Amino acid sequence: MTEMVVEASKAIALAAKLCRPKVIPMYPITPQTHIVENLAEIINNGELDAEIIHAESEHSACSALLGAQASGIRTFSATASQGLALMFEVLPIVAGNRMPCVMAVANRALSAPINIWNDHSDAVSVRDQGWIQIYVESTQEAIDTLIQLYRVCESKEVMLPGMLCIDGFTLSHVYERAFVPDQSEVDEFLPEYKPLNILDPANPITMGPIAFPNSYMEFKKMQHEAMLLAKKEIEKANQEFGKKFGRKYGNGLIETYRMEDAKYAIIGMGTLIGTARTVVDKLREKKKKVGLIKLRSLRPFPDEKLRKAIEGLKGLAVIDRHISVGYEGPLYTDLRSAFYGSKLTLSNYIAGLGGRDITAAHIEKVFIDLMNGKSGGWLL
Amino acid sequence: MAKSTCGKDKMEFTIGAVIKDPGSTIKNKTGGWRSFRPIIDQTKCVKCGNCWVFCPDNSIKKNEDGTFSIDYDYCKGCGICANECPLKAIRMETESK
Question: How many domains does chain B have?
């Protein structure tokens, strides 16, 4: 294990390298570019035996990801914002073909107005396309989760693609202290990829055939069931990673902070959690019974774990870094559904769109609103 | 592996819908989609093979004696053969006839 001060993007490139992908299709887009730039350098230095495909668009990059993975190897790519939007057509094809591709998404707002800064509108908008989505808070968590994600996606029960979602700039461009595992340690944790099927001219098979109305639903149901089974695999990977490397992130699906006797709590995803931790500490010093829930896995959605986490709570504020235009924050919708029938008071805050800072003052205001029984709104 | 719950079809549901045994497009007869049936008038046909060239679904068969016939198991009745036949030796009849 090597301790270093490293930019999160570079750390993700280093972690990807440790997972030994053989093909890395790439198309640059801010704020993801440093990830693939670093990988290009790593390959150029002869530190990783992998092929780069410079695609002419993200649509092509994602198609190449699928094709390369179909040939029976491990792949990696990264994208953001409009890039992910351009990949949309291919995303459900990767998932439907049950190809465990892994990709980093440096979450960035969608145009228009054009904006290169962070929110979750890109990834959350594609959450229904069959990719596992894990949102992380720090450089260290990004490194560790990427390694775990390969194991989860490639597990026999799952065989689904996965996105490592990191906040653009707020995490992607931040320098932090981090521990990068050694190759031998990762090799022990992450077994060699065993594809279910290989696209091989010597042994021809058909991948991606048409499914008529008499069979499409069954395939979709199998995909859904695999995604539900991924919950167990995410927990298992987190647990075993913790045993080997000494770092764990809650139960893998969610992580709670000072929730033991909490009456009021905030739930969110990504870097806002780091800010919220300090606010929770500050309010705890003032004897306020407040806590924090970090949602790591948006899909699969850990509804049972969340129901357990809110036991004893009076109020929960949901901070969404995305707005389902015309309704409400999508995380809020998911949580209201998960908590249907409970007496918990839920409120929804839309925050941090297009890179707007979510400050400690914002988080404190949310807690004060919660304790005063006020409903949510926009944190402008 | 899931089992079919729809109709009488016996199907195998592989992960990712992969087909491991070749020939599924032969087993799956698609002629049932047809609403117009091409019929070759062999007395007008001069065996030029235009229909065979133009058929987008490989449903015109070349016989040993040089004549052509239609494979109704897969012909979807698009009518391209009838349109392309220089002697109008192929007519399209509705399947309801």
Answer: 1
Report whether CATH 3.30.300.20 matches the domain A2-245.
no
Q: Do A99 and B16 touch (CB under 8 A)?
A: yes
Cα distances (Å, whole numbers) of residue B73 to A210, B28, B30, B76, B85 = 19, 9, 6, 9, 21
Q: Which residue of B has its CA nearest to A203?
A: B20
Is A223 in a helix, a strand, or coil? helix
**Per the structure block, which two tokens stand in for B17?**
């819908």
Whether B18 and A221 lie within 8 Å, measured CB to CB: no
- Range(s) of the domain holding residue B76: 28-94
Which CATH class name applies to A255-379? alpha beta
A162-204 pLDDT tens trace: 999 999 999 999 999 999 999 999 999 999 999 999 999 999 9
**What angle in degrees, to the nearest 10, is found between the helix axes of A8-18 and A33-44?**
50
ipTM above 0.85, yes or no: yes
CA-closest candidate to residue A167, choices A210, A215, A118, A102: A118
